[in-house]
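ingest -> validate -> predict -> emit
validate: passed (alphabet ok, no gaps, 326 aa)
predict: started
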Amino acid sequence: MNSMSKIGIAAATLVALALPFLLAGNRFLGFVLGMTLISLLWASGMNLLSGFVGLMPLMFAGIAGIAGYAMVYFTRTYAWSFWLAMPVASLLAALIGVALGLPALRLKGFYFTLCSLVIQSVLTLAFIFFPTFTNGDTGINEIAPPDWFGGGALTGTRLDFALAVVAVAGIFFGAWLMRTHLGHKFVAVREDDVLAESIGIDVVRTRITAFFIVSLYAGIGGCFYAVYVGFISPRAFDVLVSLNIWLFVTFGGRGTILGPIIGTAILAPIPFLLQDLQAFKDILSGTLIILVTLLMPGGIYGAWLTLLARRRGREVKTIQAREQGV
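emit:
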């Protein structure tokens, strides 16, 4: 991780932790911030698989949905605290996700993406046709917020700050993970899985490990989404949600830690801030995505890194020319 990334992540951390208090007087902007922070957690998880392993998991939202529904079931049926139900539900969702995705994880590229889309479709149908647990298309409303450790409900600014802490923790965990031996394996599998296999890396096991970790991100985000919005339905965890999260990652710059932060900060608030201008919102989002895809295939942060590299290359050539007396 270069110094610019460290500075950017530090700045993003300070902003994320400060904004809940700065926006305490405006509940609408506070809600937009909360939804953006949940999207940031999801994008950080998606980036580990899409950016560093090279797989695009379109069943990401479905796994988040499993955790969300499971958390609600545990809290309502067994009267569990959110802080107990959330990790259990997230772990359960991750295990189910790995079990469902095991055949797909033996594939790569387009074939994995297509298989994950089928799994997402199955999960969406399951959310609809198992009303005993999900209440079907009607969804589940009046989901209670988390309980505060000192008593009372964790709502408003305090819940926004809790989301900020969770999102920041997800970012730092991802940054730490990519500096470990396991993170290096992720990149090796992305770059050339055949070569990685030849030097002793178990490609399938590495992908399963990455998918399990990413599924935990999805599950934790799904649980916080349920208590933050207070309502969940199959549409809250459909394939469009997975695509949006993937767009945040790609827009900012996949395969980097700072890129998803930038992409989420720009794109995630747009649907809420421009909700009264539905047509303009869609046009603006689509235009931004097309421009970045065509002009900056590596995303905004990727383009910035490329520009800096070229500038430094020119500076090195200038210095060399001066030393040679040219």
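The chain has a mean pLDDT of 90.
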